[in-house]
Amino acid sequence: MTVDYKIDAMFELRKFLWKELKDSFIFDAYDYYSDNLGKEIIPIIPVQQSPEMDQFLNGKKHIIYDKIGMSYEENWLICCEKILFTIYSTDVTEIYEIRNLMTDLFRRMDESAVDVNDQNRPSKLKFHSIHIVETSPIDPSIELKGFMSTDVILEVKYSRTTDKSGRFD
Hints:
Elements: H1 9-23, E1 33-34, E2 39-40, E3 44-46, H2 51-56, E4 62-72, E5 79-89, H3 92-106, H4 110-119, E6 125-135, E7 139-140, E8 148-160
Parallel strand pairs: 3-4
Antiparallel strand pairs: 1-2, 4-5, 5-8, 6-8, 7-8
């Protein structure tokens, strides 16, 4: 049996966050539809985006994410990761709105994990706890001229299904 090593907690959180941002009417998926690709582009993108993506997102609010830490606890089945989301917008009120939604979604630790698990079934991942570790002040972006930005750091504890020997299945 081959193992899918592309499965990652960060990607599951991205899917969950995108759904919540659309359901809360904070993002309109139509604003991120690409005629060239014939589908919507999810504006929650990895840290190493392509120049084409920069051009597509020009002037639009979006979120960049990256994994900034990973460890295992004494129970080696539980992984603990820190995931950084940087929110960009030209409008500070949009940043507050996104950050407030993320705070509401991810402040409840175990209950936040239950919400993510419920949306991502079936999955080889089981989230145990998700909470906000830190947020940064909103400042002018150094990377993107004309944008403001803030960071939201989540700590995520999860496990993955394993075989009899403890390896990922």
